[in-house]
UniProtKB/TrEMBL annotation:
A motif (Q motif) lies at residues 29-57. GO terms for biological process: maturation of SSU-rRNA. It is found in: Nucleus, Nucleolus. Residues 60-243 form the Helicase ATP-binding domain. It comes from Entomortierella chlamydospora. This is RNA helicase. The keyword RNA-binding applies.
Amino acid sequence: KEQLALFRNHLKIKVYGTDIPNPFRSFEGLGKQYQVEPYLQRNILASGFKKPTPIQMQAIPVILHGRDIMAMAPTGSGKTMAFVLPILHDLKGPEKVGYRAVIISPTRELATQASIYINAKESPNSSGSIFNQIKKLSVGRKFKVCMLTKATAATQGQAPHLRQKYDILISTPLRLVHAIQQEKMELDQYVSHKLLEQGFLEQTDEIFAACSHPSLQKSLFSATLPSGVEALANTFMRSPIRIVIGSKNA
Ligand code: ADP
């Protein structure tokens, strides 16, 4: 127990909450402990990731245990993989039943990803966008990912029969609210995860109202967590575990 405290301390991992799963130390160890499928292990290695970053060490076991999470870690610290890996692990493989995971991310970040989406086949290694990291980590499984942004066509992925073929939805907050309100998209039908990144707060009420399904697991990853956001997140999460990496916001 003392060793665990030292280990977290050394990596500047702060944790708050009850029954917090231990951090893992290597991707090999993670694979053994959580039966992560070999294809995911291979893709991690193929990405050139030799060892997990601190946020990955602590956040991935928490999500794999089915717990809600609020995670703060600096930009560039590997947050994307920390939620993409557990989603892919949980979804197992593609199914034609509609979105089973929803990732919400700010407009600014998705704007750069839209062009990567189009060029995904030509430049699989360009940058660490959410879409790209899903593509890299899911090689060998034909997951279908739908991107909803202001720039994408209004109809894309919206009609129920179109939605069916997708496994994962990536959306901006505004676009998702539009889909919920105007197109009567029901999030609680198939969604098993809901992952939020910073910058979504303006539209939270509608999004949370559409995510009332009790089995929905929720994660919030951000570089900072203003106290107002934390209070709000606490109202819709079930006994969340809070993780803070680095000295900020401690
Ligand atoms: P954040 O979301 O925290 O801003 P990213 O998830 O975009 O950070 O990761 C930043 C960069 O680090 C990306 O290029 C990503 O591919 C890379 N990266 C993520 N995890 C690892 C790892 N375990 N080892 C090496 N590089 C990693």
